[in-house]
Amino acid sequence: MILSIDIGSTTTKFVLMENDEIIDYKIKDLGVVIEESDVLKMVEEFKKGRNVKKTVATGYGRHKISFADKVVPEVIALGKGANYFFKDADGLIDIGGQDSKVLKLKDGLVIDFILSDKCAAGTGKFLEKCIDILNLDKELNEYSSPNYAKISSMCAVFAESEIISLLSKKIPKEEIIMGIYDSISNRIVPMVKRMKLENIVFSGGVAKNKILIQVLEKHLGKTLLIPEEPQIVCAVGACIMAFEKP
Fold first, then answer.
1. In what residue span(s) does the ATPase BadF/BadG/BcrA/BcrD type domain sit (predicted)?
2. Exposed end of the chain (fewer CB within 10 Å): N or C?
3. Does domain 1-86+231-245 have CATH number 3.90.170.10?
C-alpha cells in the first residue's frame, strides 16, 4: 500500500491506495503552520494495522515531511489525480487556499498550466475572508440569488472594501455572495479560455460549493467534472506517481 500526504494551506489530506484502488482517506483542518510531529502522529494512527510500503508527500507544505520516502510536485500530482477520476479530462481547475491553478492535460500529463498566486482574490482564503466580513448565520451553500452585486475590483483588499460598502448600503447578503462568486469566476474563466479546455475537472475544497459551481459553469458554458471527494485529487495523484516510479 501507498500512503500520500497532501499538505495544503488550510487542510491536510491522507490517502491510502493499493493496486490502483483507494482504500481509505482522511481530511484534517490543520493549516500549513503545523509541526511534523503532529503529522507523523496522525500518519501512525492512519497506518495502524496496514502494510504501508511507501509514503509520498505533496502539496503546499510537502517539504515539511522529512520522513516521506518521496516528495512530488503538486501540479504534476493534480494531473495524475484528475486522470484517475476522469480519463477524458483535458484540463483541471484547482482553487486552493493560497492560489488558483488551471492545468492543461493529456492522458494525465500536465502539458501547460497557469498559476495565479500574486493576489488572494480568486482563492479559498479570499472566500473565507469574505464570509467573515458578511458574518453569515447560515451555511454558505444556503445563500443564492438571481441578482449579483457588482464587485469590480480584481484586488482582494479593494474587493473587501467593496463588500463592506455594499453591506452599508443594505444590499442583501445573498446578492453580495453571488457577486463574490462572479468575481472569482471572472479570474478563473480567462485562464481556462487561454488553455482552450473542454473536459475540465474541478478539484479542491471550493469545488464542494454547489452555487459557485453553477456560476462557474454558466461563465464557461460547460459542465464541470467533479469527483465525489474533490479534496483528495492531488493526494490520489501523488499515490499514483509513487506506484509508477521506484
1. 5-242
2. C
3. no
